[in-house]
């Protein structure tokens, strides 16, 4: 009688939560995620993206986090509500997304507490600082001595997301390791807000030449938890540092998934 061969199941790719924003599309309130973030997950780390709607208190954050192997906090055209960090009221016409604020803030805290790997981008970088107690510049280009970090006025995405300015990576830091030991890196720039007072529990990983904090790492968790002010998800496979950053995030998510399967 032939002996039946037993094969081990193939581990599924890590499940990565991707945060959504609220937009009005054809008159309807819509939850949206830019495709570049989804492809950052699929192409940058080989993960399965799970889009998380901006439902605020109507979303069971604990149940969502309990399903995830990693969390990607996206960028957005909207600004964090200034009352969340004790800031002055925003200038007229500033775009806000209170439903996103009400979703991402508790989601991020719950994920960090659970030790889930986290990567935050642009608005997510700012949200991470706020949720841990830091503050923001609402219009960093109006601060004395600062560069204009806003996106070029063009619809050509290759120009919008093209190289804009250099950052210096912290000596001996995670980002320097991911950058092959080099301390200089050229990044894109598409933001108005920026970190003002750095939150406790964050360590600077990258700084622009004008002093703007462009990358941080969370020190309160042993898991991968970092954020960047720029957009590494755009054409992620064409940029060595972006690919290394998403790769490190993916490795951490796989390790976390493996731990969950053993418990």
From TrEMBL:
PROSITE patterns: GATASE_TYPE_1. It is an enzyme of class 3 (hydrolase). Pathway: Amine and polyamine degradation; putrescine degradation; 4-aminobutanoate from putrescine: step 4/4. It catalyses: 4-(gamma-L-glutamylamino)butanoate + H2O = 4-aminobutanoate + L-glutamate. InterPro entries: Class_I_gatase-like (IPR029062), Peptidase_C26 (IPR011697), PuuD-like (IPR044668). Its EC number is 3.5.1.94. One of its GO terms (cellular component) is cytosol. GO terms for biological process: polyamine catabolic process. Involved in the breakdown of putrescine via hydrolysis of the gamma-glutamyl linkage of gamma-glutamyl-gamma-aminobutyrate. Belongs to the peptidase C26 family. This is gamma-glutamyl-gamma-aminobutyrate hydrolase. It comes from Elstera litoralis. The lineage of its organism: Bacteria, Pseudomonadati, Pseudomonadota, Alphaproteobacteria, Rhodospirillales.
């Amino acid at each position: 009688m032939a002996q039946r061969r037993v094969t081990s199941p193939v581990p599924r790719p890590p499940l990565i939560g991707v945060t959504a924003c609220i937009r009005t599309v054809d008159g309807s309130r819509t939850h949206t995620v830019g495709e570049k973030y989804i492809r950052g997950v699929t192409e940058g780390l080989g993960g399965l993206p799970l889009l998380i709607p901006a439902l605020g208190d109507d979303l069971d954050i604990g149940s969502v986090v309990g399903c995830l192997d990693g969390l990607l906090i996206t960028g957005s055209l909207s600004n964090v509500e200034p009352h969340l960090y004790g800031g002055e009221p925003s200038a007229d016409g500033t775009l806000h997304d209170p439903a996103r604020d009400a979703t991402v803030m508790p989601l991020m805290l719950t994920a960090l507490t659970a030790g889930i790997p986290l990567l935050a981008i642009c608005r997510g970088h700012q949200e991470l600082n706020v949720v841990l107690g830091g503050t923001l510049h609402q219009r960093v280009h109006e601060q004395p001595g600062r560069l204009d970090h806003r996106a070029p006025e063009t619809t050509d995405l290759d120009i919008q997301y093209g190289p804009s300015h250099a950052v210096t990576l912290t000596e001996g830091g995670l980002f320097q390791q991911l950058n092959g030991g080099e301390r200089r890196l050229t990044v894109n720039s598409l933001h108005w807000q920026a970190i003002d007072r750095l939150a406790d529990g964050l360590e600077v990983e990258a700084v622009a030449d004008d002093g703007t904090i462009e990358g941080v790492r969370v020190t309160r968790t042993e898991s991968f938890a970092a954020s960047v002010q720029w957009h590494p998800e755009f054409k992620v496979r064409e940029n060595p540092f972006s690919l290394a950053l998403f790769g490190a995030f993916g490795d951490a998510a796989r390790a976390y998934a493996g731990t969950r399967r053993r418990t």
